[in-house]
Give the backbone structure.
Amino acid sequence: MNLTTIRIAWRNLSRNKRRTALAIGAIAIGQFTLVFVNGMMAGMFVDMIAAITGPLIGHVQVHHPEWREERAVDLCVEGVDEAVSRIETMPGVVSVLPRIYSPVLTASGEESEEPADAEIGVVVGVRFEEEVQTGGLLEELNTDDFRGGAALGSILANRLGVQEGDLLAVIGQDADEFPVTELFEVGAIIDSPVELVKTMGIVIPIEQAQELFALTDQAHEVIVLGAHYDDADGLAAAVAAIDSLSEAEVLTWRQAIPELARLIEFKGWIDFVFVGILFIAAAAGIANTAMMSTFERLREFGMLLALGAKPPRIVSMVLVESVLLGVVGVVIGSILGSAVVLITSQTGINYAAFAGSEAEEVSFAGLNISYVMFPMFQFRQVAYGFVAVSLTSILASTWPAILAARLEPVRALRS
């Protein structure tokens, strides 16, 4: 192949401008769809995974084998302090978050002429200094304004009619099945993305929760956050190898929420679907253009063959013309798709608005996830388009190219 062949192929594309424009437009639309939709899906899934594996699920979970089913107060992980210390020294571990959960009845502890209405709540014992960091349950807590006491979920606070500085009474049961009561000062009201905390949570220091519920050196759950969610399998294996956790259940986030794992696997198939759409759009446009162009130029090909042009030269002319057609369409679609993805990655897309909904978030796996998603540009989607269209161009134009190369010069000149 030489530059002359490329120039001839490029010139031939301008012979029927309308047909060429339609073919390029079909390919460009297919590539735009591939880049934009997959960028939108990638951004949505990355945000969802980061939200779910952050404050609630973590990358690895450790708890009593029966705790997820029964949620009983006495089903705990033993020797938590030593286990947490061991895990914190492991490579790749960002934070270790032991937690205690205990259902209680709660009501305003302020004096009133009318008896206060009680609500069901959950006392959550955590390490405040860890949980206020990125990825913790208390990431939304303003530590500068927090005065100690309990951090109360905003919905629960609204139902109880309490404000910061008010007293909160709780009645529950400890691990030995003895009743316990306590008064907490509401130090902060938090609008947590975790549904449990937002609607029922009474968050207190874990040491206070351990004392209240007779859980010395115990916790219901230990959440481990690594550098990246893809490292969960190796991290889980290392945690499970700790002797003191030999009786505990150690799960990765994929095992803890298999629905999300299946959703992510399905997302991989979506990539193939849109590549297939691009294949079809390219094949339809290029095959039609190549066939029409070949039959319109039979006399031209016959003359070239009569003048001594070799059949491979004819084949290369048709193939190069089709590849150029596809590449131009891919370039246009890639530029438009990439531009839209990069712009919306900054502005975000509220996909609830398309359905006419005014909701700002949706609940999934115990989390409130925002409807506003931020697409993520992935160069591989552009590369997929170039590869798919190049292959399609060659396949769609092979038969017309062979047909042109096998022409008999005399017959072609008389046609």
Remarks:
- The chain is about 55% helix and 20% strand.
